[in-house]
Design goal:
It is built from 18 helices and 13 strands. It has a seven-stranded parallel sheet with strand order 3-2-1-4-5-7-11, sandwiched between helices. Strands 6-13 form a two-stranded parallel sheet. Strands 8-10 form a two-stranded parallel sheet. Helix 1 packs across helix 12 and helix 6 packs parallel to helix 10. The longest helix is centred in the last third of the chain and has 26 residues.
């Protein structure tokens, strides 16, 4: 495997880089695009925000004193910003080198905050996809451009089975969305100019831009800014890529902590269902929306990484044994809804069981509350109005009200993500590399016992790597 180029996003990106360096002996080199932070140099940020993470402890132990030397030979950090034209790179000689040497471009960068500032989300999730695809077009020996999206970009549609098809085949009005991207840029700039003229505070500006993002997303049928701008990102890739450019889009569902590699339970920050898990642990989720048919489609981060690596091997031009596809744009869903759906009721029951045995810091068993679930938002609101009238009790359901509003589209939107292409990829892997090697790149959610994963892997990892560091950092404020 030869040179690769990536743009930065936390959990999947870091696990991906670690596994490539740990298990791919033929890997020639990695170029990592990292956004500048403060006055750190590219090398300093590489050590702080990538290889300095706990997830690299297995690789660090493997190389011992030679770890830093190994990294310096295999990895080159580059400062850039996907939200900028030409990704903010100003060194023309470096650009020429990258365009000549790079064979794979993998685009991870995204802002995953559901209700992000609209200017930020549009710049990173939509225009970022455009800028990275423009870069990929210039790579002389490119074998594949892989864009990491999200399965939930289709949440705008009617419930049912969602096929692994490009958005351009799903929405009849795709051409309209191609036209509105520039209009949305102008709208954002106009709003920023108005706010500047009004001399509002930074906080007021942020509030206004968040509100604008929600309004624009809702106008076009998406529930939040994140999904809207990610959908536009997929569309702009289709518009700006040449027909003969090999492009693959991977759509994971909600990413959670690692299942196996490099060790179970590693996670970066709070992901997908984690706010709900934490709320259960703190006794702050006495009621919620959902039922046993309301699946919360999740997938461990290392399984996403395994799928990416297998996709790269399969789609490499130098590989004569890859799957033959009838169209240029290939879409892969990776999740669990098509295999063994995990309902939100079961997942939060597992969280309740965990915290009954492992009390939240300073808590007691009387604070543990098993959530009561309601099939609709209407019934959920009626329950709150009927049962929580005392001020202290009202505070107790603030978390539930907040998260119900955010999770409503994901839990009450009955959908199954088809994984036909992903299943075919898995069969190809076993046929050409054998069961043993295929197991080392497992991305089959059927192999997961979700109760064991939640109680013995994910929640302990969440408490160790996300909750406790968060509490320590807050104590210093």
């Amino acid at each position: 495997m030869t040179s690769l180029f990536f743009s930065f996003d936390p959990i999947v990106f870091v696990v991906f880089v670690e596994k490539l360096l740990r298990v791919q002996p033929n890997l020639k080199h990695l170029f990592l695009l990292l956004r500048a932070v403060d006055t750190l140099s590219p090398t300093q940020r590489l050590h702080k925000d990538v290889i300095g993470k706990e997830v690299f402890r297995v690789l660090r132990k493997k190389h011992g004193l030679g770890f830093n030397s190994f990294i310096s030979k295999k990895v080159t950090p580059i400062f850039g910003d996907v939200s900028l034209e030409n990704m903010g790179m100003e060194d023309s000689d470096l650009e020429k080198k990258l365009h000549k040497e790079i064979n794979f471009v993998v685009h991870f960068a995204a802002t995953t905050t559901l209700q992000e500032r609209y200017d930020v989300a549009l710049a990173v999730n939509t225009l970022g996809a455009k800028h990275v695809s423009n870069f990929a077009e210039k790579c002389e020996n490119l074998e594949m451009f892989l864009h990491v999206s999200t399965a939930f970009v289709c949440i705008r549609e009617m419930p049912g089975v969602k096929l692994e098809t490009p958005i351009s085949q799903t929405f009849k009005e795709t051409s309209k969305f191609l036209d509105i991207i520039e209009e949305e840029k102008k709208l954002v700039q106009q709003k920023l100019n108005e706010l500047k003229a009004e001399q509002v505070s930074k906080k007021q500006e942020t509030t206004a831009m968040i509100k604008l993002g929600i309004e624009r997303a809702n106008t076009y049928g998406w529930p939040n800014t994140y999904l809207f701008t990610k959908a536009l990102g997929e569309i702009t890739i289709g518009r700006h890529l040449k027909k003969n450019l090999p492009v693959v889009i991977l759509r994971p569902t909600a990413v959670t902590g690692t299942y196996r590699e490099p060790f179970p339970g590693w996670i970066e920050g709070f992901k997908s269902l984690d706010p709900l898990v934490i709320s259960v642990g703190r006794g702050k989720l006495p009621c919620f929306i959902g039922d046993h048919e309301s699946s919360l489609d999740i997938i461990p981060g290392d399984m996403v990484v395994n799928a990416i690596i297998v996709i790269m091997v399969n789609h490499a031009k130098t590989n004569n044994h890859g799957i033959r596809h009838d169209h240029n744009d290939i879409i892969y869903h990776i999740g669990n809804s098509s295999t063994q759906s995990t309902s939100v009721v079961k997942l939060l029951d597992y969280a309740y069981d965990y915290f009954r045995e492992n009390l939240w810091m300073g808590g007691d068993t009387n604070e543990n509350v098993k959530p009561v679930f309601f099939r609709t938002m209407c019934r959920f609101r009626e329950h709150i109005l009927s049962n929580y009238v005392v001020p202290m009790e009202e505070q107790k359901v603030q978390f539930a009200k907040r998260w119900a509003k955010i999770y409503e589209p994901y839990l009450l939107f009955k959908v199954i993500f088809d994984t036909s292409a992903t299943d075919q990829l898995r069969r190809w892997m076993k046929a050409h590399y054998g069961t043993g090697e295929a197991d080392g790149f497992d991305f089959d959610a059927k192999h997961i016992n979700w109760k064991d994963y939640m109680i013995n892997i994910h929640i302990p990892g969440l408490m160790k790597y996300a909750v406790k560091p968060h509490l320590v950092s807050n104590s210093k404020l």
